[in-house]
Amino acid sequence: GIGMKERDAGEVTVRNTDLATFTALVRYLCTDQLDLGEEGGGRAQRALDLRQLAQMYQVPRLELLCAQALQESVGPASAVPLLEAAHATGDGRLLAQCRRYVADNAAEVRASGGVEQLRDLGVAKGLLGDALDQVAELKGTVAAR
């Protein structure tokens, strides 16, 4: 090109992403298909990262598809990390879904190591508050009998 050194011609630096996530963005833009790769825990992280890219590059439909994929990927092992991610990104819908999931499936979440994955003190306090509310509700139900 004009005024460019040969070695710079083929390189573009994209910050705040990894190759697999950026590839998923380009694939979506070319095919209109969301591809999060293999099944399993990696899909939720890819959906989180891809949603962030979709926000950055203003691709609202992809952002929505990623949000739906995140809601579908809430499970025993992913509920706590997704709860923290929802808290960090201000995703109220995913936050509420994860809180409800943890409350309804506490034993499974605990058995999967979800509690040990907690990093955010605010989220930990919120979950503790939810648990205390449940205990109070149960005591109220027992006392009413």
Automatic annotation (TrEMBL):
Q: Domain BTB spans what residues? A: 5-73
- Which InterPro entries does the record cross-reference, listed alphabetically? BTB/POZ_dom (IPR000210), SKP1/BTB/POZ_sf (IPR011333)
Name assigned to this protein: BTB domain-containing protein
